[in-house]
């Protein structure tokens, strides 16, 4: 029951959008990604071009998150912590993953869809 509530909360958080005159960058999206051993939930995040990305570690070991092609983002989290960053991205598909050895191969990767 708690797991279902957590997932529903994440879904609601991910689809929350608000608009404003920000110079035409589109709606801002807040996306929360939970890291555990060895996956990200959700593994697919859809957003506008302006994203406030939050990484929360609910696992027992250190994890991080980088986005291919986006050199200025490297979120790092110890167990129980969270990190966040604001992104302004071109529409497209971006792969994110954990850089800890063997974590990506074990399934810690996902896709950020911007558009």
TrEMBL record:
Any Pfam family the entry gives: Copper-bind
SUPFAM superfamilies linked to this entry: Cupredoxins
Blue (type 1) copper domain span: 74-114
Keyword Electron transport (UniProt): yes
Residue stretches spanning the membrane: none
Statement: the UniProt record of this protein carries the keyword Electron transport: yes
Gene Ontology MF terms: copper ion binding; electron transfer activity
Organism: marine metagenome
Protein name: Blue (type 1) copper domain-containing protein
Gene3D superfamilies membership: Cupredoxins - blue copper proteins (2.60.40.420)
Database matches in InterPro entries: BlueCu_1 (IPR000923), BlueCu_1_BS (IPR028871), Cu_oxidase_CS (IPR033138), Cupredoxin (IPR008972)
Keywords, comma-separated and alphabetical: Copper, Electron transport, Metal-binding, Transport
């Amino acid at each position: 029951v708690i797991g279902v509530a957590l997932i529903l909360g994440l879904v609601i958080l991910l689809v929350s959008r608000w608009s404003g005159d920000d110079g035409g960058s589109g709606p801002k999206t807040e996306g929360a990604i939970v890291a555990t051993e060895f996956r990200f939930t959700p593994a697919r995040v859809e957003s506008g071009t302006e994203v406030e990305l939050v990484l929360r570690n609910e696992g027992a070991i250190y994890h991080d998150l980088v986005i291919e092609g986006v050199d200025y983002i490297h979120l790092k989290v110890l167990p129980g912590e969270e990190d966040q960053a604001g992104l302004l991205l071109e529409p497209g598909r971006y792969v994110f993953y954990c850089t800890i050895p063997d974590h990506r191969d074990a399934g810690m990767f996902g896709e950020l869809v911007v558009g």
